[in-house]
Amino acid sequence: MPKLDIIHNAVKNALINDGWTITDDTYVIQYRKTTLYTDLGAERPIAAERDGQKLVVEVKSFVGASKIQDLKEALGQYDIYCYLLEETAPDRKLYVAVSAIAYKSFFNQDVIQLILYKHQLPLIVVDTETEDDHTMDKLTEYPKLIKRILTEYIELSNRRPNRDIETFLIVDEPKNQYIWMNLGWQNGERVTGMTVYVRIRDRKFWIEEDWTEDGIATDLVRAGVCQGRYIVGIP
What we know:
Distance between the termini: 31 Å
Structural class: alpha/beta
Number of helices: 8
Helix content: 25-40%
Order of helices and strands: HEEEEEHEHHEHHEEEEHHE
Largest sheet: 5 strands, mixed
Strand order of the largest sheet: 1-4-5-6-7
Number of strands: 12
């Protein structure tokens, strides 16, 4: 199953706040021997005497190196999912959800508006910063969140242990400091190093050291933290 998009939780919360019921998180399209995954299924009663309106939502953050390439991929996915939904769930309408930031910076361009018009691509535009504010009490939840993320990484690392190097988490709760530490010996030499060092200060995550593949910031955003306002990456 593919990873969730970084604005997945914000889109889900926006739908819930708008009165939708999330029926599937993730929505599975099964056509004969082919299985595909979209982000969300949702439904909301329109009126008591009418059938409920049902959606399938594909979430796209448009944060790739080329937004045009992101759009090409989104349009291709949209077409494929539409064809399969027509066969498997014709009562569901497919939408693509994007952030308000992406819409203002990219989708407002004349050429993109032309493509959307020609393709008839239905969009849901979500103010991800507002939704993220609603989903997390920063002062109480941030320490729990970073400890959970780092603990999961360390537990995964320890599944393939190096007998000579110990991997562990250092937590300084009064000062809100969190360190993924490595300590031991390698080829007869002492090894000491931090894989990740994160501080919480002024209600922001200060990422002082990060040697993970995708970046701890990515994990924080996926967990519901707004990257533009609450994460400060230190190069």
